Amino acid sequence: MAQGWGDGLPLIPPTEARVQDFLVAGGRFPDELIAVLPPLRAECTVEKIAVNAVMAGCTGDAMPLLCAAIEAMADPSFDLAGLNATTGSVVPAIIVNGPIRNALDIPYQAGCLGGVAGPAPAIGRAIRLIMRNVAGQLINATSQSVYGTPGRVAGIVFGEWEERSPWAPLAERRGVAGDAVTVYGAMGTANICDVVADSADGFLDIIAKSMAYPGANGFLTSSAFSETLCAINPVWAEVIARSYPDMADVQAYLWDKCALPIDWWRPEYRAPIEALGRIGAEGRVHLTPTPDDVIVMVAGGLGGLHAAMLHSWGTCLTVTRPIR
Amino acid sequence: MTIQVLDPTASLAHDVADPGPDAGVLKDKRIAIRIDMLWRSWDWVSAIWAEGLRAEGAEVTFWRSCGRTGAEGEAAARDYAALLRESDAAIVGLGNCGSCTSWTIADALEAAATGMPTIAVATAHFEGLAHNLAKRGGRSGLRLHVLPYPLDILPRDQVDDIARDQYRSFLRNFGVRGGLAEQSAA
């Protein structure tokens, strides 16, 4: 702790024996380079991942997930250099698909975004410690985050409830079937609650319109483009899929309704928005450039009533990688 | 009892403390000014500075940083590299938030790595971040000119005044010789 290696919570000392045990369980060679991480532009080896994971309380069976997540975050499209320095309150969300969800006990049902007793907080914390200790993301030194987010301590690690999803798994739709991790630059999580809707259009309307608020990342004229993500509970998903069995149609519906009229903004905003070519038919501004940029997944408990939206950050693009 | 633990951190890259070459005499120099889609104040400041640079005989080219990820990002990287190949010196801004400072310093480091005179520009609140990122990028000596903060919320006439007030000190930081830079130093 005195070395500045921690997050303020107690740490498990990364003794050589513990790290060795972790490496053996993880089945990777310690000197294998996984990625170069900004802002330090430091080499993140399997050993550095193991040392930080031990400190976080993580077990060795999570090593393939940790390595895949770090690889994904280092993809230039994810803009980790900007993300780790930004004034924004962003943290990479780690979304897991495939059988490994159950093998690692990754939450995807009730309470999946936080609060389930299991290994997800330790996995998330391991990644946060890697960002701190290897990438060098430190508040007031390299990170300028004005507020930060609770997710910067133990991460946001959850899975998709594939067994209850009427659509193909998120990672498979993104080209990676089976065990996969998807990293998404999340400006926290926010709830969408509804007790009236009883149809696909009703649920999709309330989700889309809730996501379209003026200060959302996608509406900022400082971003050339962006994505957005929502998690739909299985109860709503089942109703929605009866009308929209094709996910592309769900995305298209959400994209269409996830918009605000240009006159919603004060006059000084309108010229920059117009200059970006963002004003569409009927004078509406869509949150994202295309329906493909609306990322949809199924997760959450069977209590229904709620969806979750995770707004994006900057032009950070979602990256999916296989877990090997 | 003492417990030996393994180091979870990574070490800094090899550091270059030298600020790199001075901009020298401006006449006939091709100077690239990197702007962005975030800060109108930097558009205004750099426009006034460009007038001064042109008055001293330099040829000024602006390049605007927009989307830096995906296909647009790959195209931007190619365009920026091409710009640097056709330039003799680079002025790179503006560091006025976290991510934009990160990209400002990254682009300045790329320019400096070619050996050309390079200066990054940031506002005072982000000066520390800019130095930290330059150091972590292996070039702690990177030239940095610091503008007042807050800047972007000021009206244009005030920003223009700041640009004019700062121009001579900017030239000195950039290592410009002759003309207005030396008049002000005298």
From TrEMBL, chain A:
<protein>
    <submittedName>
        <fullName>Uncharacterized protein</fullName>
    </submittedName>
</protein>
UniProtKB/TrEMBL annotation, chain B:
<protein>
    <recommendedName>
        <fullName>UGSC-like domain-containing protein</fullName>
    </recommendedName>
</protein>
<feature type="domain" description="UGSC-like">
    <location>
        <begin position="4"/>
        <end position="172"/>
    </location>
</feature>
<dbReference type="InterPro" id="IPR057767">
    <property type="entry name" value="UGSC-like_dom"/>
</dbReference>
<dbReference type="Pfam" id="PF24696">
    <property type="entry name" value="UGSC"/>
</dbReference>
